[in-house]
Amino acid sequence: MKRMRSETPIGFLLAGLLLLVPLAAWALDEPFYITLATRVAILALAAVGLNLALGLGGLVSFGHAAFFGIGGYTAGILATHASTLQPLMTWPIEVGGSDQMLVIWPVAMILSGLVALVIGAISLRTSGVYFIMITLAFAQMIYYFAISWPAYGGEDGVPLALRNAFPAIVTSLPLNFFLICYALLIAALYLFARIRDSRFGAALQGARQNEVRLAAVGISPFPIRLAAFVLSGMMTGLAGALFADLNRFVSPSMLSWQMSGELIVLILLGGTGRLFGPVAGAMLFVLLESILGGFTDRWQLFLGLILLGAVLFARGGLVGLLAGKVHHG
Amino acid sequence: MQTALLIEQILNGLQFGVMLFLMAAGLTLIFGVMGVINLAHGSLYMLGAFACAAVAAATGSFWLGLVASLATAAAAGAIVELLVVRRLYDRDHLDQVLATFALILIFSEGTRWLFGSFPLYLDIPPVLSGAIDLPGGARYQLYRLAIIGVGIAVAIGLYLLISKTRLGMRIRAGQSDREMIAALGVDIQTLYTVVFALGAALAGLAGAMVGALQSVQVGMGEPVLILAFVVIVIGGIGSIKGALVGAALVGLVDTLGRFLLPKVFALFLGPSEGTTVGAALASMLIYVVMALILAFRPRGLFAAGT
Asked: Chain A: nearest CA to B224, how far in angstroms?
């Protein structure tokens, strides 16, 4: 219960700050900061997804870029077909593209979920280092497929002519798009908290802490982990679809191993397994990227040093530093 | 002509496999003895290539470059072990992944800082620059054959080192029970540093040899690192024999897949579409093989007895 008392106010403070910055930027007519905040919200959403598998389930997936990229490519491909009016497929039924976010999101989540189901079903047969390497390998497989398949840009990626549409909201205005992403982030955080405190969440955390004990009370860890992995992939896939809309461009780098690494880094910077860890991590990451990137091209060198310091010496992440240690079994 | 081409592709596959073996052997040794997953192994490969290219350019001798690459990679490996990896032995895999991911960022940006963003080029040494005739009318680059030779020599050397020497005995003991060999009075810290430097030197050797075949640039290590992961997942983590078999398998399947699949699909789908589909599927082939092997043997072909 100590965790609830010390962590929750900091979480709400961070979430409030993330809302206030773009509102202030909007009032001061500084659209750049709105875009920056949108980037934070989307990366945080992707990391909340990963946090379900990694933080609650202890499944160190080094392949979540696969789901992020699949979400992005779903948005890009559907939007391309909507603008060229060419059907996406003609058999067995004719399916066209779409530029409606309310269509794209579920499709992105279903596709990411299906891929997560296949990858999870294979890689969850293993554990530990094997799991890390196999998820990394599968993400790399999808990356190579994307760059060698010329229909959708290959190495050049897919540009989006216009940002996709949402009923009754003008999405091309930066603040409106930020609010959509922010609302989805808050919904994802709520879902994460509900899952964490549910029976399913208890079983998932039990599988992380002691698999044998979980099996002894009659719960098989595999289906629990697979379900968490699929949910996690779906949430990250949704973030990918938003990321494509933010940049109006889908780059194969969304599928790269660096992206998978960055998502893990976000969680670590914020604090593993914390509800608001991904939010704190994404804020810190984008802040570092824009501050360090502002005065040196070599900002990744400093990011590396900071990250190394954080792993070796500050294990609780930002939320851990602010809220005090919490014991993870 | 077709047979000649096929023989050439098989040799290319073996050469690729040998390079993967040099990477995978170091990784699997480090994991087997110390239980550490080292993402920065690709950076050591890159360092080896850069050291070789820089020294060869300065002195005009590929061989001095090769020595420099071994020394640089081994030294970098030892420093990394002493400063960073040593603190990670009793941490969980997540911390190891993050710390070594941070090392990739540091090594990549540091190398870019030193050498700039442009790739370096390394010439094949004159002695090995020719080609030789193969049965079937093919001609094959001598240098690539030399790489295969070096790989086989390293495999035999590692086998002798691990099965016949005192150091090898300690490595095997470390793989089966770390606490016990420390309790028996073996200086385990030094053993760890030596094993790490040995693995790093193998990665540096691979980087230096490949540097003469392709451009030497930042980021060259990670694609190879990920393939080396596939190799040790297939072979079984901790097993040198598994790394050898897995590397040959991945090298051959990947090279022959890229050569044959476009041709096979061209027969069914017509030349242009068939080639596209074949090439896209060939890029996924080794991962499909990995998935199939894992479906039957979740711990790899030659899993260590743990």
From this structure: 11
